[in-house]
Amino acid sequence: MENTAEIINKTIRGRRSIFPPSYIQKEIPVEIIETILENANYAPTHRLTEPWRFMVFRGDSRQKLAHFFMERYKSITAPEAFSQARYEAAGEKVMKSDCVIVINMEVHTDKVPEWEEVAAVACAVQNMWLTATAHDIGAYWSSPGVLDLLGEYLELPENQKCLGMFFMGYHQAPETAARRTPIENKVIWA
Ligand SMILES: Cc1cc2nc3c(=O)[nH]c(=O)nc-3n(C[C@H](O)[C@H](O)[C@H](O)COP(=O)(O)O)c2cc1C
Questions:
Q1: How far apart are the first and last CA of the chain?
Q2: Which domains does the chain have, with CATH numbers?
Q3: Alpha-carbon torsion 15, 145, 102, 39, what sign?
Q4: What is d(CA 18, CA 175) in angstroms, rounded to the nearest whole number?
Q5: Per-residue pLDDT for the chain (190 aa), expressed as one digit of tens each?
Q6: Residue ID of nearest Cα to ligand 1 atom 30
Q7: What is the distance between the alpha carbons of residues 183 and 132, in angstroms, rounded to a whole number?
Q8: For residues 43, 49, 50 and 52, what is the CA-based torsion angle, rounded to 10 degrees?
Q9: What is the pTM of this model?
């Protein structure tokens, strides 16, 4: 039987970005989504600002998110270049995912600099990603260049910023090794 250190090494090193084209149609039980969110809440946080905020889109509510990307395509496409197929494809990543969690950050500039809030949210997302991996759920953090507009569309409060989306789905992606250069190139033992 593997001990805790072996399990954590395997989970961290085995985590991959798994994208919606590999997702299959299989519902993620709500209890697992709750566990993923609960584990996010255990991320480290300077001065306990707990800046992570999430919006969960599953089932029919995914349409609202897909609609944003479809309308975005329409708004940046000249009428003569508009294609109905591309319009529908713009929402496909969302609709192929069983669940999409929008990742937001609440800033507390009176307490800590913004970069520390970003770092804490990233730790929360890594907790989510590792938990998804442990449940054989594919996931990845997506950060398209329209996050400010998405935040507006979702009517985030003034003190929140959208940092991306966490796409999730059971999947049929083959196992792949991580592409990384050696850690020795990035460390100085002073
Ligand atoms: C903050 C952040 C934002 C990311 N945004 C995107 C993205 O918009 N599109 C994408 O394909 N991958 C995105 N990724 C995933 C990376 O591409 C991925 O982590 C990298 O290729 C390494 O692959 P691995 O996660 O399988 O180890 C993002 C990752 C992070 C940490």
A1: 37
A2: 21-58+97-173 (3.40.109.10)
A3: positive
A4: 10
A5: 789 999 999 999 999 999 999 999 999 999 999 999 999 999 999 999 999 999 999 999 999 999 999 999 999 999 999 999 999 999 999 999 999 999 999 999 899 999 999 999 999 999 999 999 999 999 999 999 999 999 999 999 999 999 999 999 999 999 999 999 999 999 999 9
A6: 141
A7: 25
A8: -110
A9: 0.97
Give the tokens for residue 15.
Answer: 């985590």
CA of 5 to the centre of ligand 1 (A): 25
- Residue 3 DSSP symbol: -
The residue type at 166: F
- Ligand 1: which of 52, 117, 140 to mutate, most ligand atoms within 8 Å of CB? 140
C-alpha radius of gyration, the chain, whole number: 18
Distance CA(14)–CA(10), nearest Å, equals 6
